[in-house]
Amino acid sequence: MSAPARIPAAVVNGAGYGGIELLRLLRRHPVFELVEVTARSDAGRPVEQVFPQFSGLDLTFSARVERAEVVFSALPDDAAVETLPALVAQGRRVLDLSAGFRLHDAALYPTWYRYEHPAPALLEEAVYGLAEWARERLPDARLVACAGCYPTATLLALGPALARDLIAPDVIVDAKSGVSGAGRSLKLNTLYSEANEDISAYSVRGHRHQPEIVQALAETPGAGRPAPRVTFIPHLAPMTRGILATCYGSPREGVTEDDILAAYHEAYDGEPFVRLTSEPPHTKWSYGSNRCFVYPVIEPQSGRFIVISALDNLVKGAAGQAIQCANVMYGLPETLGLPVEGVYP
Ligand SMILES: NC(=O)c1ccc[n+]([C@@H]2O[C@H](COP(=O)([O-])OP(=O)(O)OC[C@H]3O[C@@H](n4cnc5c(N)ncnc54)[C@H](OP(=O)(O)O)[C@@H]3O)[C@@H](O)[C@H]2O)c1
Protein backbone atom coordinates (compact mmCIF):
# COMPACT_ATOMS: atom_id res chain seq x y z
CA MET A 1 0.00 0.00 0.00
CA SER A 2 1.39 3.43 -0.89
CA ALA A 3 1.94 6.02 1.83
CA PRO A 4 -0.77 8.73 2.02
CA ALA A 5 0.12 12.07 0.40
CA ARG A 6 1.54 14.61 2.80
CA ILE A 7 -0.53 17.67 3.62
CA PRO A 8 1.41 20.91 4.17
CA ALA A 9 0.74 22.24 7.67
CA ALA A 10 1.58 25.39 9.59
CA VAL A 11 1.70 26.27 13.27
CA VAL A 12 0.76 29.87 13.99
CA ASN A 13 2.44 31.22 17.13
CA GLY A 14 4.81 28.31 17.58
CA ALA A 15 6.58 30.11 20.42
CA GLY A 16 3.88 29.72 23.10
CA TYR A 17 3.24 26.56 25.09
CA GLY A 18 0.39 25.33 22.87
CA GLY A 19 2.41 26.07 19.74
CA ILE A 20 5.49 24.29 21.07
CA GLU A 21 3.38 21.22 21.85
CA LEU A 22 1.97 21.35 18.30
CA LEU A 23 5.54 21.36 16.98
CA ARG A 24 6.45 18.34 19.13
CA LEU A 25 3.47 16.32 17.87
CA LEU A 26 3.31 17.48 14.24
CA ARG A 27 7.02 16.91 13.73
CA ARG A 28 6.36 13.16 13.90
CA HIS A 29 2.97 13.16 12.18
CA PRO A 30 3.07 10.88 9.12
CA VAL A 31 0.61 12.94 7.02
CA PHE A 32 0.65 16.55 8.18
CA GLU A 33 4.00 17.94 7.06
CA LEU A 34 5.21 20.88 9.06
CA VAL A 35 6.25 23.44 6.43
CA GLU A 36 5.81 26.74 8.30
CA VAL A 37 5.90 28.00 11.87
CA THR A 38 5.11 31.60 12.72
CA ALA A 39 6.03 33.70 15.73
CA ARG A 40 5.88 37.36 16.55
CA SER A 41 9.07 38.41 18.36
CA ASP A 42 11.02 35.30 17.26
CA ALA A 43 10.25 35.77 13.53
CA GLY A 44 13.44 35.31 11.49
CA ARG A 45 15.14 32.99 14.01
CA PRO A 46 15.67 29.25 13.38
CA VAL A 47 13.30 27.18 15.48
CA GLU A 48 16.14 24.98 16.78
CA GLN A 49 18.02 28.05 17.96
CA VAL A 50 15.07 29.29 20.02
CA PHE A 51 14.12 25.80 21.20
CA PRO A 52 17.12 23.43 21.19
CA GLN A 53 14.78 20.52 21.95
CA PHE A 54 13.84 20.75 18.23
CA SER A 55 17.44 20.36 17.13
CA GLY A 56 17.47 19.17 13.52
CA LEU A 57 14.12 20.76 12.63
CA ASP A 58 14.96 22.76 9.52
CA LEU A 59 12.47 25.62 9.92
CA THR A 60 12.78 29.31 10.69
CA PHE A 61 10.03 31.22 12.47
CA SER A 62 8.23 33.33 9.89
CA ALA A 63 5.85 36.26 10.20
CA ARG A 64 2.95 34.79 8.22
CA VAL A 65 1.49 31.66 6.65
CA GLU A 66 2.08 31.29 2.92
CA ARG A 67 2.20 27.65 1.86
CA ALA A 68 0.21 25.55 4.30
CA GLU A 69 -3.13 23.96 3.49
CA VAL A 70 -3.98 23.21 7.11
CA VAL A 71 -3.22 25.72 9.85
CA PHE A 72 -2.97 25.00 13.58
CA SER A 73 -3.24 28.28 15.45
CA ALA A 74 -2.06 28.81 19.03
CA LEU A 75 -2.59 32.56 19.12
CA PRO A 76 -4.19 34.31 22.09
CA ASP A 77 -7.92 34.62 21.36
CA ASP A 78 -7.91 38.37 20.61
CA ALA A 79 -5.14 37.89 18.04
CA ALA A 80 -6.85 34.77 16.65
CA VAL A 81 -10.12 36.55 15.84
CA GLU A 82 -8.19 39.22 13.91
CA THR A 83 -5.82 36.85 12.09
CA LEU A 84 -7.69 33.66 11.28
CA PRO A 85 -10.65 34.88 9.16
CA ALA A 86 -8.23 35.86 6.37
CA LEU A 87 -6.63 32.41 6.42
CA VAL A 88 -10.05 30.77 6.16
CA ALA A 89 -10.96 33.14 3.29
CA GLN A 90 -7.77 32.06 1.49
CA GLY A 91 -9.13 28.51 1.46
CA ARG A 92 -6.95 27.09 4.22
CA ARG A 93 -8.49 24.80 6.85
CA VAL A 94 -7.90 26.22 10.30
CA LEU A 95 -7.85 24.59 13.73
CA ASP A 96 -7.83 27.21 16.45
CA LEU A 97 -6.69 26.44 19.99
CA SER A 98 -8.05 29.73 21.31
CA ALA A 99 -11.53 30.61 22.55
CA GLY A 100 -11.97 33.13 19.73
CA PHE A 101 -14.52 31.05 17.82
CA ARG A 102 -15.87 28.71 20.50
CA LEU A 103 -18.97 30.63 21.63
CA HIS A 104 -21.83 30.72 19.13
CA ASP A 105 -23.31 33.95 20.47
CA ALA A 106 -21.24 37.04 19.54
CA ALA A 107 -22.96 38.99 22.33
CA LEU A 108 -21.05 36.91 24.91
CA TYR A 109 -17.62 38.14 23.74
CA PRO A 110 -17.75 41.69 25.20
CA THR A 111 -18.78 40.24 28.57
CA TRP A 112 -16.34 37.36 28.80
CA TYR A 113 -13.47 38.40 26.51
CA ARG A 114 -13.78 42.21 26.52
CA TYR A 115 -13.97 42.73 22.75
CA GLU A 116 -16.62 42.97 20.08
CA HIS A 117 -16.25 39.93 17.86
CA PRO A 118 -14.97 41.04 14.43
CA ALA A 119 -16.19 37.94 12.52
CA PRO A 120 -19.57 36.85 13.94
CA ALA A 121 -20.49 34.91 10.78
CA LEU A 122 -17.64 32.53 11.50
CA LEU A 123 -19.05 31.85 14.99
CA GLU A 124 -22.05 30.23 13.34
CA GLU A 125 -19.87 28.22 11.03
CA ALA A 126 -17.05 27.10 13.34
CA VAL A 127 -17.24 23.49 14.49
CA TYR A 128 -16.67 23.05 18.22
CA GLY A 129 -13.67 20.76 18.31
CA LEU A 130 -14.13 18.05 20.86
CA ALA A 131 -13.43 15.17 18.48
CA GLU A 132 -15.48 12.66 20.49
CA TRP A 133 -18.62 14.74 19.92
CA ALA A 134 -17.92 16.32 16.53
CA ARG A 135 -17.02 13.43 14.24
CA GLU A 136 -19.93 14.02 11.89
CA ARG A 137 -19.28 17.74 11.40
CA LEU A 138 -15.49 17.77 11.24
CA PRO A 139 -15.00 16.36 7.72
CA ASP A 140 -16.67 19.46 6.19
CA ALA A 141 -15.21 22.03 8.57
CA ARG A 142 -13.24 25.04 7.37
CA LEU A 143 -12.72 26.35 10.90
CA VAL A 144 -12.50 24.26 14.06
CA ALA A 145 -12.74 25.96 17.44
CA CYS A 146 -10.93 23.39 19.55
CA ALA A 147 -12.50 22.83 22.96
CA GLY A 148 -10.71 24.48 25.87
CA CYS A 149 -8.64 22.54 28.38
CA TYR A 150 -10.98 22.83 31.38
CA PRO A 151 -14.05 22.33 29.16
CA THR A 152 -12.58 19.13 27.66
CA ALA A 153 -12.01 17.65 31.12
CA THR A 154 -15.49 18.73 32.24
CA LEU A 155 -17.41 17.67 29.13
CA LEU A 156 -15.86 14.22 28.94
CA ALA A 157 -16.58 13.78 32.67
CA LEU A 158 -20.20 14.94 32.73
CA GLY A 159 -21.39 14.38 29.16
CA PRO A 160 -22.67 10.77 29.43
CA ALA A 161 -24.55 11.37 32.72
CA LEU A 162 -26.26 14.54 31.51
CA ALA A 163 -26.98 13.31 27.99
CA ARG A 164 -28.74 10.22 29.34
CA ASP A 165 -30.58 12.26 31.99
CA LEU A 166 -29.06 10.16 34.79
CA ILE A 167 -28.39 13.27 36.88
CA ALA A 168 -30.22 16.55 37.40
CA PRO A 169 -29.04 19.39 35.11
CA ASP A 170 -27.34 21.22 37.98
CA VAL A 171 -23.64 20.44 38.47
CA ILE A 172 -20.57 21.68 40.31
CA VAL A 173 -17.12 21.45 38.73
CA ASP A 174 -14.09 21.82 40.99
CA ALA A 175 -11.08 21.86 38.69
CA LYS A 176 -7.32 22.21 39.17
CA SER A 177 -4.86 23.16 36.46
CA GLY A 178 -1.09 23.08 36.21
CA VAL A 179 0.68 26.38 35.66
CA SER A 180 1.30 25.86 31.92
CA GLY A 181 -2.45 26.36 31.48
CA ALA A 182 -1.79 30.06 31.95
CA GLY A 183 0.63 30.16 28.99
CA ARG A 184 4.23 31.27 28.59
CA SER A 185 3.83 35.03 28.97
CA LEU A 186 5.13 36.57 32.17
CA LYS A 187 2.52 36.82 34.92
CA LEU A 188 3.02 37.44 38.61
CA ASN A 189 0.89 34.51 39.78
CA THR A 190 2.82 31.97 37.71
CA LEU A 191 6.27 32.93 39.00
CA TYR A 192 7.90 29.93 40.70
CA SER A 193 7.96 31.55 44.11
CA GLU A 194 4.27 32.42 43.87
CA ALA A 195 2.89 29.15 42.47
CA ASN A 196 5.20 26.57 44.02
CA GLU A 197 3.75 24.92 47.17
CA ASP A 198 0.61 27.02 46.80
CA ILE A 199 -2.91 26.26 45.65
CA SER A 200 -5.79 28.68 45.32
CA ALA A 201 -9.08 29.17 43.51
CA TYR A 202 -9.45 31.96 40.97
CA SER A 203 -12.24 33.58 38.89
CA VAL A 204 -14.78 32.38 41.47
CA ARG A 205 -17.32 34.98 40.32
CA GLY A 206 -17.10 33.82 36.72
CA HIS A 207 -14.48 32.16 34.54
CA ARG A 208 -14.52 32.37 30.73
CA HIS A 209 -14.82 28.64 30.40
CA GLN A 210 -18.15 28.58 32.24
CA PRO A 211 -20.29 29.79 29.28
CA GLU A 212 -18.36 27.46 26.98
CA ILE A 213 -19.09 24.47 29.26
CA VAL A 214 -22.79 25.41 29.49
CA GLN A 215 -23.07 25.81 25.71
CA ALA A 216 -21.33 22.50 25.00
CA LEU A 217 -23.24 20.51 27.64
CA ALA A 218 -26.51 21.74 26.14
CA GLU A 219 -25.27 20.34 22.81
CA THR A 220 -24.01 17.00 24.16
CA PRO A 221 -25.01 14.37 21.61
CA GLY A 222 -28.36 13.02 22.75
CA ALA A 223 -28.95 15.87 25.22
CA GLY A 224 -31.79 17.85 23.60
CA ARG A 225 -32.60 19.55 26.90
CA PRO A 226 -32.12 23.08 28.24
CA ALA A 227 -28.61 24.10 29.26
CA PRO A 228 -27.65 22.82 32.71
CA ARG A 229 -26.79 25.09 35.62
CA VAL A 230 -23.02 24.92 36.03
CA THR A 231 -20.90 26.17 38.94
CA PHE A 232 -17.30 26.09 37.72
CA ILE A 233 -14.44 26.88 40.10
CA PRO A 234 -10.88 26.64 38.72
CA HIS A 235 -7.75 26.36 40.86
CA LEU A 236 -4.08 26.91 40.09
CA ALA A 237 -2.11 23.87 41.23
CA PRO A 238 1.67 23.67 41.74
CA MET A 239 2.42 21.39 38.80
CA THR A 240 3.61 22.07 35.26
CA ARG A 241 0.92 20.21 33.29
CA GLY A 242 -2.38 18.55 34.02
CA ILE A 243 -6.01 19.17 34.78
CA LEU A 244 -8.00 17.32 37.42
CA ALA A 245 -11.74 18.03 37.38
CA THR A 246 -13.93 16.73 40.21
CA CYS A 247 -17.58 17.15 39.23
CA TYR A 248 -20.64 16.76 41.46
CA GLY A 249 -24.28 16.14 40.57
CA SER A 250 -27.48 14.60 41.93
CA PRO A 251 -28.62 11.28 40.47
CA ARG A 252 -32.21 11.09 39.22
CA GLU A 253 -34.52 9.06 41.46
CA GLY A 254 -33.71 5.33 41.27
CA VAL A 255 -30.47 5.71 39.30
CA THR A 256 -27.79 3.32 40.62
CA GLU A 257 -24.05 3.22 40.20
CA ASP A 258 -24.54 0.26 37.84
CA ASP A 259 -26.72 2.46 35.61
CA ILE A 260 -24.01 5.12 35.64
CA LEU A 261 -21.24 2.67 34.83
CA ALA A 262 -23.26 1.11 32.01
CA ALA A 263 -23.79 4.55 30.46
CA TYR A 264 -20.11 5.48 30.70
CA HIS A 265 -19.00 2.13 29.26
CA GLU A 266 -21.44 2.57 26.39
CA ALA A 267 -20.11 6.08 25.75
CA TYR A 268 -16.40 5.37 26.07
CA ASP A 269 -15.50 1.72 25.51
CA GLY A 270 -14.93 2.42 21.82
CA GLU A 271 -13.06 5.69 22.35
CA PRO A 272 -9.33 5.58 21.69
CA PHE A 273 -8.47 8.44 24.03
CA VAL A 274 -11.00 8.20 26.87
CA ARG A 275 -10.38 5.58 29.53
CA LEU A 276 -12.67 4.66 32.41
CA THR A 277 -10.74 3.92 35.58
CA SER A 278 -11.55 1.90 38.68
CA GLU A 279 -9.81 4.33 41.02
CA PRO A 280 -9.52 8.12 41.10
CA PRO A 281 -7.22 9.19 38.23
CA HIS A 282 -3.95 11.03 38.60
CA THR A 283 -2.84 13.83 36.28
CA LYS A 284 0.52 12.05 36.02
CA TRP A 285 -1.16 9.20 34.14
CA SER A 286 -1.88 11.60 31.28
CA TYR A 287 1.38 13.56 31.23
CA GLY A 288 2.36 14.07 27.58
CA SER A 289 -0.46 11.85 26.27
CA ASN A 290 -3.73 12.55 24.47
CA ARG A 291 -5.71 10.49 26.96
CA CYS A 292 -8.42 11.60 29.32
CA PHE A 293 -9.11 9.36 32.33
CA VAL A 294 -12.65 9.32 33.74
CA TYR A 295 -13.83 7.85 37.06
CA PRO A 296 -17.62 8.00 37.75
CA VAL A 297 -19.11 6.86 41.09
CA ILE A 298 -22.05 7.38 43.40
CA GLU A 299 -20.71 8.31 46.82
CA PRO A 300 -22.71 6.04 49.20
CA GLN A 301 -22.99 8.38 52.21
CA SER A 302 -24.55 11.34 50.41
CA GLY A 303 -25.89 9.50 47.38
CA ARG A 304 -24.21 12.18 45.26
CA PHE A 305 -22.85 11.48 41.78
CA ILE A 306 -19.15 12.25 41.48
CA VAL A 307 -17.07 12.01 38.33
CA ILE A 308 -13.37 12.81 38.24
CA SER A 309 -11.37 13.35 35.04
CA ALA A 310 -7.67 13.90 34.41
CA LEU A 311 -5.87 15.03 31.26
CA ASP A 312 -2.83 16.92 30.03
CA ASN A 313 -3.92 20.50 29.29
CA LEU A 314 -1.36 20.88 26.50
CA VAL A 315 -2.18 17.59 24.75
CA LYS A 316 -5.84 16.45 25.05
CA GLY A 317 -6.61 19.97 26.28
CA ALA A 318 -4.91 21.75 23.35
CA ALA A 319 -2.44 20.47 20.70
CA GLY A 320 -3.45 16.80 20.74
CA GLN A 321 -7.12 17.74 20.58
CA ALA A 322 -6.45 19.85 17.48
CA ILE A 323 -4.53 17.06 15.75
CA GLN A 324 -7.22 14.51 16.67
CA CYS A 325 -9.81 16.84 15.08
CA ALA A 326 -7.60 17.36 12.01
CA ASN A 327 -7.21 13.58 11.60
CA VAL A 328 -11.01 13.29 11.51
CA MET A 329 -11.31 16.28 9.12
CA TYR A 330 -9.04 14.57 6.61
CA GLY A 331 -10.48 11.07 7.03
CA LEU A 332 -7.26 9.78 8.62
CA PRO A 333 -7.15 7.28 11.48
CA GLU A 334 -8.14 9.36 14.50
CA THR A 335 -5.12 8.31 16.55
CA LEU A 336 -2.53 9.08 13.85
CA GLY A 337 0.59 10.76 15.24
CA LEU A 338 -0.87 11.12 18.72
CA PRO A 339 0.74 9.85 21.93
CA VAL A 340 -1.37 7.34 23.81
CA GLU A 341 1.03 6.55 26.65
CA GLY A 342 2.50 9.52 28.47
CA VAL A 343 5.70 10.05 30.44
CA TYR A 344 5.79 8.64 33.98
CA PRO A 345 6.67 9.59 36.66
N1 LIG B 1 -1.83 26.72 27.74
C1 LIG B 1 -2.82 25.86 27.69
O1 LIG B 1 -2.86 24.88 28.44
C2 LIG B 1 -3.92 26.03 26.68
C3 LIG B 1 -4.87 25.02 26.58
C4 LIG B 1 -5.92 25.15 25.66
C5 LIG B 1 -6.01 26.29 24.89
N2 LIG B 1 -5.09 27.29 25.04
C6 LIG B 1 -5.24 28.45 24.18
O2 LIG B 1 -4.24 28.37 23.18
C7 LIG B 1 -3.80 29.69 22.83
C8 LIG B 1 -2.31 29.74 23.07
O3 LIG B 1 -2.09 29.52 24.45
P1 LIG B 1 -0.65 29.32 25.01
O4 LIG B 1 -0.78 28.94 26.44
O5 LIG B 1 0.16 28.48 24.08
O6 LIG B 1 -0.12 30.81 24.89
P2 LIG B 1 1.18 31.41 25.46
O7 LIG B 1 2.16 30.35 25.85
O8 LIG B 1 0.74 32.36 26.52
O9 LIG B 1 1.71 32.19 24.21
C9 LIG B 1 2.31 33.33 24.50
C10 LIG B 1 3.09 33.80 23.30
O10 LIG B 1 2.19 34.33 22.34
C11 LIG B 1 2.82 35.42 21.70
N3 LIG B 1 1.81 36.44 21.47
C12 LIG B 1 1.15 37.13 22.40
N4 LIG B 1 0.28 37.99 21.80
C13 LIG B 1 0.42 37.80 20.48
C14 LIG B 1 -0.17 38.40 19.36
N5 LIG B 1 -1.08 39.37 19.49
N6 LIG B 1 0.20 37.99 18.15
C15 LIG B 1 1.13 37.03 18.02
N7 LIG B 1 1.74 36.43 19.05
C16 LIG B 1 1.38 36.82 20.28
C17 LIG B 1 3.88 35.90 22.66
O11 LIG B 1 5.10 35.82 22.02
P3 LIG B 1 5.98 37.13 21.77
O12 LIG B 1 5.57 38.13 22.82
O13 LIG B 1 7.34 36.61 21.89
O14 LIG B 1 5.62 37.57 20.40
C18 LIG B 1 3.90 34.90 23.80
O15 LIG B 1 5.19 34.34 24.06
C19 LIG B 1 -4.56 30.65 23.72
O16 LIG B 1 -5.63 31.16 23.00
C20 LIG B 1 -5.02 29.79 24.87
O17 LIG B 1 -6.21 30.27 25.44
C21 LIG B 1 -4.04 27.16 25.89
The shape is: globular
Bound molecules: NADP nicotinamide-adenine-dinucleotide phosphate
| Largest beta-sheet details | 7 strands, mixed
- State the total count of DSSP E strands: 13
Helical segment count: 11
What is the ordering of alpha helices and beta strands? EHEHEHEHHEHEHEHEHEEHEEEH
CATH architecture of the largest domain: 2-Layer Sandwich
C-alpha end-to-end distance: 38 Å
Relevant CATH superfamily of the largest domain: Dihydrodipicolinate Reductase, domain 2
> Residue ranges: pLDDT <50 for 5 or more in a row?
none
Q: Hey, roughly how much beta strand do the residues contain?
A: 15-25%
* Average pLDDT taken over every residue: 96
Strand order of the largest sheet: 8-9-7-10-13-12-11
Taking all Cα atoms into account, the compactness measure Rg is 20 Å
CATH topology heading of the largest domain? Dihydrodipicolinate Reductase, domain 2
Structural class based on helices, strands and sheet pairing: alpha/beta
Helix coverage percent of residues?
25-40%
Descriptive keywords:
13 strands, Rossmann fold, 6-stranded parallel sheet, Dihydrodipicolinate Reductase, domain 2, 21% strand, 345 residues, 2 domains, 7-stranded mixed sheet, alpha/beta, globular, binds NADP nicotinamide-adenine-dinucleotide phosphate
